[in-house]
Design a protein that fits this description.
222 residues; mainly alpha; 0% strand
Length: 222
């Protein structure tokens, strides 16, 4: 199997796993990642199915990337745009069907599993290097078009804006504190602080070896 085929498979599988993990996040209702916090708010005020809404929002972000830096757009960008939202919708519904009235301890377990799956999927997706998601492109383009604010801070600002808008939209929709916490909670905090190290772990142990690009032990420990 040649490298390009491997990279395409890794991209598709990575996006699919990402959708499954986000569906699990939403089912656990203990907080989702910042962009999904915004999506939850939009979902609460716009009366269309989540999968379709996800495509529309990402299409708008895609226009931003196309205007300012088309190099960030690739096959994986479109896989993410058209596939992920519907996988999220399906996986959340499946969890609700299989585990109705799940107790808090089970929701915590689902959240932890979802975090691991999300980091694994991100490692596969990033390592395949066939384009970034439209949301990732926003912070990347912003950081590269100016020199005063580094990428890490651009990403933090984007994340905080998403969370803030998500909360405001949920309040406008009349959601309860419990429902808002389901979008902006412990899961949001964990993803903000622990995704980086876990993605690096899966990148070194899983994604790179799949492409036949294994690093030495000293590189892995760095």
């Amino acid at each position: 199997m040649n490298q390009m085929v491997k990279r395409i498979i890794m991209s598709v599988f990575g996006v699919a796993l990402c959708g499954v993990s986000v569906g699990m996040f939403k089912f656990a209702a203990l907080g989702v990642d910042p962009f999904q916090s915004l999506m939850s708010g939009l979902d609460a005020v716009i009366p269309i199915r989540f999968g379709t809404l996800y495509v529309i929002v990402n299409a708008v972000l895609l226009l931003f990337a196309l205007i300012f830096d088309r190099k960030k757009i690739g096959i994986a960008t479109f896989i993410n745009l058209f596939l992920l939202g519907y996988i999220v919708e399906f996986s959340q519904g499946l969890c609700e069907k299989l585990m109705p009235d799940a107790p808090i301890w089970l929701r915590v377990v689902i959240l932890l599993i979802a975090i691991v799956i999300l980091c694994l999927s991100s490692a596969l997706y990033f390592t395949a290097d066939l384009g970034v998601s439209t949301y990732d492109a926003v912070a990347l383009v912003w950081s590269q078009k100016q020199s005063k604010i580094k990428f890490a801070y651009c990403r933090v600002i984007c994340d905080l804006v998403c969370v803030a808008f998500g909360v405001v939209l949920l309040l406008i929709a009349g959601k309860s504190f419990e429902e808002i916490f389901g979008s902006v909670g412990i899961g949001t905090i964990i993803t903000a602080f622990f995704m980086g190290p876990l993605i690096t772990f899966f990148n070194v142990r899983v994604a790179q070896p799949l492409l036949g690009n294994q690093k030495s032990d000293s590189e892995r420990s760095s």
